[in-house]
Design brief:
Blueprint (H helix, E strand, L loop, with lengths): L10 H10 L7 H16 L5 H4 L8 H5 L2 H15 L11 H11 L6 H4 L2 E4 L9 E4 L10 H6 L10 H12 L14 H4 L2 H7 L6 H6 L3 E3 L7 E3 L6 E3 L3 E3 L2 H9 L2 H16 L8 H14 L2 H9 L7
Antiparallel strand pairs: 1-2, 3-4, 5-6
Helix pairs in contact: 5-6, 14-15, 14-16, 15-16
């Protein structure tokens, strides 16, 4: 049997090989596979010749994320994540229009929920909705079409559906109704089967609904909303909060909001939540998002990680 001697490579040569993609299995085939995955995931397109010929396709991640194609794809992803079904009118998909606006203007992701905007219907029934600056805005949460869509059927007008949507959209909270109660009143929700979700001091749906405006009427065209009048309620770990502005601001200020932003980025890129073994890349995402506050930074931190193309 012939005996071979390992070839010695100087640190300078090894560094050059690593940079050029010759080492660590960065073959032309693996680079093409990486380019294809990045383009399909971020843009929903086949890779360009330039991306296929790139020495390191992941160097192009930020440029891809800056395109209108990515913004459209990610906004549609967010809208599908936040709504079980497409809206009956464009304005009902308020999260899509404001997400696209936030991405196109490179605004902090928190603006989707806290920004001074509202989403109004377009000039005709089927026209695109319009993002409008509004000093009284609260992301898309005070947009009329969204408020009507999630006004709910609670007998006393409490917007329990909206209370859940706020926590789901901002923090990723997921709750499953025990039964279809068809507008049961407050005393019914105090029963054991319901109280766990409706009356606790962390995410109690009834407590949150009491600090939101209350639905008046049931007709979508004539429905109005009355200001809350029951005072502060114990939510988010027993904090006494009085209105939707305080509630959403407190959620956005939490570590849970940053965690959910990175989980959202992971779901967009992998079509699943993070695995425990992906702790280092998830931590890198959290660090990047905390520094820049944009969802683009969260997506970039994960898509640029070497593991994404393996």
């Amino acid at each position: 049997m012939l005996k071979t001697t390992p070839m010695k490579v100087s640190p300078l040569i090894l560094g050059a090989l690593l940079a050029s993609g010759v080492a660590l299995g960065q073959t032309a085939e693996s680079r093409a596979r990486c380019a294809t995955r990045l383009s399909a995931t971020l843009l929903g397109q086949t890779p360009t010749a330039a991306l296929l010929g790139s020495a390191n396709p992941q160097d192009n991640v930020d440029a891809m994320i800056a395109t209108a194609v990515f913004q459209e794809k990610f906004a549609r992803f967010i809208n599908a994540k936040f709504n079980g079904d497409p809206g009956a009118t464009p304005a009902e998909d308020a999260s899509y229009y404001l997400a696209r606006h936030v991405l196109a203007n490179n605004r902090p992701w928190a603006d989707l929920f806290l920004g001074q905007f509202r989403v109004d219907p377009g000039a005709t029934a089927n026209a695109d909705a319009v993002v409008v600056a509004d000093p009284q805005g609260l992301g898309y949460f005070r947009s009329r079409a969204w408020m009507v869509r999630y006004a709910g059927n609670e007998l006393d007008g409490y917007r329990i559906n909206a209370a859940y949507r706020l926590m789901n959209n901002v923090l990723g909270l997921e709750l499953v109704a025990a039964v279809n109660t068809n507008g049961v009143n407050a005393s019914g929700r105090m029963q054991a089967a319901c109280a766990g979700c409706h009356y606790n001091q962390t995410f109690g749906l009834d407590y949150v609904a009491k600090i939101l405006s209350r639905r008046v009427g049931t007709n979508a065209n004539t429905m109005t909303f009355a200001a809350p009048n029951e005072g502060p309620q114990p939510v988010l770990g027993g904090q006494m909060l009085s209105n939707d502005q305080q509630f959403v601001t407190t959620m956005v200020s939490s570590a849970d909001f940053r965690f959910n932003a990175c989980r959202t980025a992971m779901e967009f890129l992998y079509n699943r939540a993070e695995f425990k073994c992906e702790g280092p890349v998830f931590d890198a995402c959290m660090t990047a998002f905390a520094a820049s506050r944009t969802i683009q930074s969260a997506v970039s931190a994960i898509a640029r990680d070497p593991g994404f193309c393996q």
